[in-house]
Amino acid sequence: MKRWMTMGLVLVALMGVSLESNAAVPASVPLRLWHSYRGAERDALEQVVVDFGRLHPEWPVELLAVPYDAFANKLTSAIPRGNGPDVFIAAHERLGDWAESGLVAPLSGDDGLWGAFFPATVSAVTWKSTPHGYPLAFKSLALFVRDDLIGGSVPADTDAMVATCRGFAKDRPGSFCIAWEAGSFYHHAPWLFGFGGGILDDKGSPVLDRPENAASIAFVRDLTNEGFLPQEPTSALVTQLFNEGRVAMVVNGPWFLGELAQGVPYSVHPLPRVSATGGATTPFLTVDAAMVSARSLQPEAARALARFIAVQGAATRLVDAKQVVALESAFDSPGVTVDPIVLQFRDASALAIPMPNVPVMRAVWEPASQALRSALRGATEPADALKAASKRISIATRPRPAAANPLPAMVGLVIVGIGALIWAARRFRRDDTWSRMRASSHAYAFLAPAAIATAVLVFVPFAVGTGVAFFSHYQGEFTYVGLSNFINILGSTDYAVTDPLSFWFTLAVTIMWTIVNVFLHVSIGVALALALRRPWMKLRGVYRVLLIVPWAVPNYITALIWKGMFHKQFGAINGLLQWVGLEPVSWFSHFWTSFAANVATNTWLGFPFMMVVTLGALQSIPAELEEAAEIDGASAFQRFFSITLPLLKPALLPAVILGGVWTFNMFNIIYLVSGGEPDGATEILITEAYRWAFSRQEQYGYAAAYATLIFLFLLAWSLAAGRLQRRTK
Amino acid sequence: MNRRPTWLVAIGWNLALVAVCAVTLYPVLWVLKMALTPSQAFDMSPIPFPSTFSLSNFQDLVTSTDMAGNWLFGHWLFNSVVVAVATTLLSLALATTAAYAFSRFVFPGRRLGMTLFLVTQMFPGVVMAIPLYLLLDAMNLLDSMVGLTLVYATTAIPFCVWMMKGYFDTIPKDLEEAAVMDGAGRWTMFFRIILPLARPALVVTALFSFMTAWNEFILAATFLGDETSFTLPVALQRYVGDYSTEWGHFAAGAILVSAPVMALFFALQRHLIGGLTAGGVKG
Hints:
The complex is a heterodimer of chains A (about 725) and B (about 280). In chain A, about 55% of the residues lie in helices and about 10% in strands. Chain A is an alpha/beta fold. In chain A, the strands form four sheets. In chain A, strands 1, 2, 3, 6, 11 and 12 form a six-stranded mixed beta sheet that branches. In chain A, strands 8-9-7-10 form a four-stranded mixed beta sheet. Chain B has twelve helices and no strands.
């Protein structure tokens, strides 16, 4: 009897599984958990997951560390297609976006639980009055003080801070009093609030253009001008100065702990109040939350995992990873010894306000940071910079173009298609194409594999991309808008033609960028090739090998290295300039120097290709020709321009055409070296398209229209160049 | 030209070239210095020579493991090598045959085909990532080395076709005509006569497609979902994140990634000079 019952149960269970398996997956499919933690935080998370496995062996978990930069993009493309995680750990700031586009599941219920977290962390993960994630830990900026450099009391307000800095600077030339990543708006926000300013108005729309905001920027600019704060401080620079004892105080978040060198004596404090207003210097609170994917096939298990990490895992994360956990009780649980630094962080965050999780915030960061940097280096007055930023934000958040009726376009397409078919059919008959095609079937056999592969993987995606240009994208939904993206871009309707955001401005920069680069590549390459050709040059093999090196280094590595070399205060290039006795240059503050920095980097990596092409072409030029000319008394100059160059032309021209196309679309260098500084003026078309797609409210349609225009422009150029090439033959 | 110049001129030329080489190698030496210095900070001093010598960055990178104890570096290296070699073989196979057709046969659609291959070089790559993602997803090739190889190979093919076609054009047709007399078929001719003669161009084409696959990270980071399926550049990119940058590890990784390509360049540089231009001369 018992056996029968067992068998019956098994049968029912099996049926249940098989019935469910249409909708759900068998239990053996592991839950997927995505995160971007590293180091100790990652180890602690892995430990928590192991603990979860002990409690729930029926729900195996698969962890994936996704690179931070790729995280959001991956999430938004993977989840709607069912490739995404079941649970993911991310900062709460994009929650509104994700909730609106249906990526994150709302977590209603769990009523007793929410009170256990710090209230600010719960409000951070709440969207439209429902929590959308379990808060794990919170991070906010605080003041790190090197205890060996700041004797006595830590400044409690900005007057005290400035006084401390005066004393400090007097004793130690070459050192700085305080440092933070001043060019990042996130790092500036505490001062903004301290001066009584803000970002969003009551209705949740961004309003940057306020006198208080301008005052906060002026305050930081004065600190820089007095030499208390280093110029153009990057996060790497801040870390380094602090570790080397060359800066006494640093404003940074808990992630900074992982970068501190061993043996550095430090403590963590709340940020000093703003004396001018008496206001508290309030940093943004960022909450790491475990969110459940709305498309998870095992929602219950996923939710259990997310809850487990937040609640049962809190102690492990607190002790092992020194996370400032959101679960209040974790700090008092028995047997837990909390690192004093974590407590200092918790207390420093007491005043922090959750970063707004409304989607519109994502349009604020880029222009606000640009304005900040522009004002800090003295290029514009803070108020004017903020005014410009407001304008840019309003462009990025402008209303979507109205939906258009796709019928005319479809009718048009059909008519064009039929017309093309008729034309092709008539030509086929007239030229007897069909029999000629049959006669050359062997040619098609040779060609087919490459043609099919390219058609599927290059032409189809491009056609899809071009199609998107006629749509407008908002939170996962595409609306057909006809030609309005193109009209907006080409008509430069939202901004003046001379504004760096305008297509025509960027096009001019791109053309100049291409011409200057190709000219330098060719002239340096040809010059070096001619120098290396001399037969008496004993070491030419060695030189040639050394000069090819830049070609072999991946260009994103080159770009990052050169970016560091161009730093104003600490870069090697300014170091050399000062060594020669010249003034250091703030490379990314002015259009021309910034442009020059990009060009220098790209020239470095591009000339070897032209050199090698020229070396090869020179091999086929008989030396007698030049010798004869030399005997006839032609100068070196004449010989080059009337003999060598014309003979090199057929080899160089294709290389120039191709090099031009590659340079025109050289994404990595612009994106990584100047990043468009100053004010987006050095962007080229392809980086601008990327920004419209990924950092300005995901306007994919607009970006695709840019891409289509890039393609059309290059097509026109290569047709013209091809005609030129045929003429020279 | 062949006269020996005065020693003054010779020294002048050599000095100039040494100077150019110094400028060229400066950033490279600097990467080497950061890789050999155990700190993770960005090196700001203008002197590109290491003051300490430590292999700890390389050691960290090479010995890193994930939670399940997988030897990550081994996976990354394996993936990179497999993808790069497969891409090279595939694009060579497809590009040489296509180039042969363009070079030797007259058929309807020849000019259009050549133009279309050239046109692909003008598609802005960054913007194609999303459509490609959807396409690979539909073909169930996401997160697989096959998918990545296909994408890389199709990126490399157009350039390779143009290169090879140019080189094939320089090979006299008499050879084939003689072979036809002897009764050789088209494929025999292609494999026995044309390919051996085109070796310099094959070498350049292979190197080019290898580099395309070996260095790419934007598409790879988008398509690959699992840490053990990453390629080296994707893994390397993680060391320069938004919040923290581990320059020491990044530099060590940069050297490990660049070293094989450099070795290939040096081994093949003679072919490189011949192969790259012979095609171009004829256009």
